[in-house]
Amino acid sequence: MADLTTPEAQISEDPAEAGIRSETREVLLDAAERLFARVGIERASLRAITREAGANLASVHYHFGSKDALIQAVFARRLGPINRERVELLTRLQEEAGSEAVPLHDILFAFVEPVMRMLRHRDPAEARAAHELARLVVQALNDPEGPAREIVLREFHEVKERFLAALARALPDLPREDLFWRFHFMVGAMAHTASSSYMVAQLSDGLCDACDVDGMTERLVAFVAAGLQGPSVEVRR
Amino acid sequence: MADLTTPEAQISEDPAEAGIRSETREVLLDAAERLFARVGIERASLRAITREAGANLASVHYHFGSKDALIQAVFARRLGPINRERVELLTRLQEEAGSEAVPLHDILFAFVEPVMRMLRHRDPAEARAAHELARLVVQALNDPEGPAREIVLREFHEVKERFLAALARALPDLPREDLFWRFHFMVGAMAHTASSSYMVAQLSDGLCDACDVDGMTERLVAFVAAGLQGPSVEVRR
DNA sequence: GTCTATAGGTGGATAGAC
DNA sequence: GTCTATCCACCTATAGAC
């Protein structure tokens, strides 16, 4: 992160080697991610990770400083691009809309698309890895003592603010209190879908196809849109 | 579980002692639950649990056989009653409805009420414990190698089947494929709400009150009901 | 930057006295 | 049923040679 001098840059001049991109740091991140998905973050020992990476046990401490820092790096590497893209998509929509509010459906789509694109990956192994990453994020979010929770929340912060503002404009008649609650319900539905969509396949005995990411996305957006637009309830206090 | 002989029964004749219910087994379960919530399941060592319980390290192995068995017992003890009550509430609704379909709102309410009742506990410490239990359940569900996942799924199985059937009757025009997907979205919204409702308070800068469990429940049910009843999307394959 | 060796600690489990 | 003492596997982290 603070690696501004990039002392490795002068080494790999070989074009073939540059194509393979097998720098230890990256290989370690890949291996860690794979193992986190397979056995869980806590249970993935540095010994197992470095073995998987074909690297030395001490290399993790050289490149990251600690296991916790490695964990954080794994999450930051994935979540950064996704959340940046969410914000960029929304920005583009707002530019197109000019002084109008962005349509609800478009906002929701911009929110889920960057995640769903990962799940839709052509390579089944990559798609599976994406599902497991989503699962890891939910796991991290529900582990208050875990080292990844903070990263996930920080990476999500700007997304949350921007999309809440956009939703407030798209749903001008919805009381702010309802907006916050419904945003929360929406995040829950989406997180559970991204992390456990395979469950729908077994729940429906194969009728629903979790690999049909586009269909899943459309259904999810439709469900959430209907929920957001529903009537406000009278809440007696 | 297979404790049919109950060899302890002959011991505590004292009425005062019976009221306190301080049998080691139960004390261990309480202590474990408390520690799981505080530091996470994996990070709660048997040493810390038995210290918290005022019991001996070896007592866990005597009463449960292993740490994994203790973990499973903690979850089973809580989830059993909740899920049994969900089913009972639904059964009662169906008896009242006779040959009619149970109204959607009532079905949803029966689904969430037993969970929300825990969160609404008068004692703030108990209410907090309930939130953390919900968080533990979500955590367990997202940890494929964890010993609690299987228990959670097994305890939920009958609930799932019963409520899916009831929803199918309440929403006769909804294609089955949509029903499965929307049920999944619903579970996600509810799980995230039960486990992380405190986030809404900080998200809304205090405007939303996560302690107002009744208001939260009504909003959640309204959101999900609107989502379930929304129009089916045309999905191109 | 990589690797070996090892320090220093904690974990779950169990044998056997009481 | 309870408790002590102990086994042994495994972990992260680091020092220091190359």
What's the short version?
By secondary structure, chain A is mainly α. Chain A contains 11 helices and no strands.
Model description:
The structure is a homodimer of 237-residue chains. Chain A is mainly alpha-helical and 237 residues long. Chain A contains eleven helices and no strands. Chain A has helices at 15-20, 24-39, 46-53, 59-63, 67-97, 104-119, 124-141, 149-170, 176-196, 198-203, 213-229. In chain A, α2 (24-39) packs across α5 (67-97), α2 (24-39) crosses α7 (124-141) and α9 (176-196) packs antiparallel against α11 (213-229). The first copy, chain A, is globular. The model of chain A is unreliable at 1-20 (pLDDT under 50). The interface between A and B is large, with 64 and 64 residues. The structure holds a DNA duplex (18 and 18 nucleotides).
